Amino acid sequence: MSLPSGLLPSDAAPEWLNKGDNAWQLTAATLVGVQSVPGLVILYGSIVKKKWAVNSAFMALYAFAAVLICWCLWGFRLSFGEPLLPFWGRADAATLDQKSLLAQGFAGLYPSATLVYFQFVFAAITLILIAGSLLGRMNFKAWMLFVPLWLTFSYTVGAFSLWSPNGFLFKAGVMDFAGGYVIHLSSGIAGFTAAYWVGPRMAKDRENFPPNNILLTLTGAGFLWMGWTGFNGGASYAASLDASIAVYNTHLCTATSLLVWLCLDMFVFTKPSVIGAVQGMITGLVCITPAAGLVQPWAAIVMGLLSGSIPWLTMMVLHKRSRFLKKVDDTLAIFHTHAIAGSLGGILTGILADPNLNRLFFGDDPRYIGLAYAIKTGRAGAGFRQIGMQFIGIGFVVLVNVVVTSAICLLIKLVVPLRLSEEEMLVGDDAIHGEDAYAVWGDGETYDKSIRGLENFAALKSEEMA
């Protein structure tokens, strides 16, 4: 086999390359990709009303593809390139240059190409999570504009600030092992903010929005759960001890959270809810993410107990009592499952992070210590400093996403409507895409032919108003 032009035989296996780490990182990245495609494509397409199945799934698929192109052209370097500002990198053509891609990356013992791919799937799933707040009414053309704009002006700022070795919050010592802040807090806040600007679904959809296929919802949730092995396991940038404990803690916290949510549903509502169990699973996955490789297994169980109960309380109790929260139509409750759970995980990381595990990830830096261990070892000041930094990280991510997301929505509104028309919202997929999710009658026809092509919109509108 001939080598690419310009490469010597020795370049095929340079001294810095660890083939095991490279193989694991590529595998972990693919697992994260599977969370989105097909994971969230299936979950979104099945957890909504049948008339929104195609549009919801397609929003996820489009975001995955659009993010990849933007990421390779400018997103990766804005997030991890040479510093332009304390919170933003300098865009250049390095991700299109063979020599740069095959050189060692900024982290890990493998080429930069592996890092570009690994970080892409994280960026993509963040945009797809935002879509969960907007299902059932956002104009698809507006979504097509929103994805590249938000990736460029919001995601890259958070990623550079918290994950890049040159980022100001990384240097300050904020701990975010695998994306509790960069991905989940940012998607929860951005989704909630965008939902405010887009406006709510039709009243009929808000009141009654049953899943069209719960078994497929569980299938999508299964891809999400198992794919999280790569999500948190790959964050250590090596097939290491830290990766092993991160994977172990991830599943331990998730199972605990699911069971706690399930028990609360049974105690309060008397029935074990499948959708509730999925929500508890997600909050467990999100909560452990900033801490996965930094806490001991007993702490992962504690985090599962809290992630299964606190987001449940905010979603099932506080949300219903807050006039503002009820006003904003967050379709899949991304604010609770990601913003609340991600913030909770970040705070608990500041309390429960084990300094011995911190050393595996951050090296010999005495700043990184959970408050519980700091008090135990007589270093309470360092522990309170860490908690303070965790809250500063939360504040920064919230501020950036509220401001930038609002600006993007208002800008898009000048070009195309953010919201679908009443006719399109009433009919759904057939009006937007000319396609239906299921052919359930005759030779590929839908059961209720009266809604196709808006033939009877006036009659349907009268029924809706009634």
From TrEMBL:
GO CC terms of this entry: plasma membrane
What PANTHER family does the annotation carry?
AMMONIUM TRANSPORTER, AMMONIUM TRANSPORTER MEP2
> This chain belongs to which protein, by name?
Ammonium transporter
- What family is it from? Belongs to the ammonia transporter channel (TC 1.A.11.2) family.
- For the keyword Membrane, the answer is yes
Pfam families in UniProt: Ammonium_transp (PF00909)
Record GO terms (molecular function): ammonium channel activity
Keywords of the record, alphabetical order, are:
Ammonia transport, Membrane, Transmembrane, Transmembrane helix, Transport
Domain Ammonium transporter AmtB-like span(s) in chain numbering: 23-438
**Regions that span the bilayer:** 23-45, 57-76, 116-135, 142-163, 178-199, 211-231, 243-262, 274-292, 298-319, 331-353, 391-416
* Role, per record: Involved in ammonium transport.
InterPro entries annotated for this entry?
Ammonium/urea_transptr (IPR029020), Ammonium_transpt (IPR001905), Ammonium_transpt_CS (IPR018047), NH4_transpt_AmtB-like_dom (IPR024041), RhesusRHD (IPR002229)
The cellular location(s) given in this protein's UniProt record come to: Cell membrane; Membrane
How is the protein disposed in the membrane? Multi-pass membrane protein
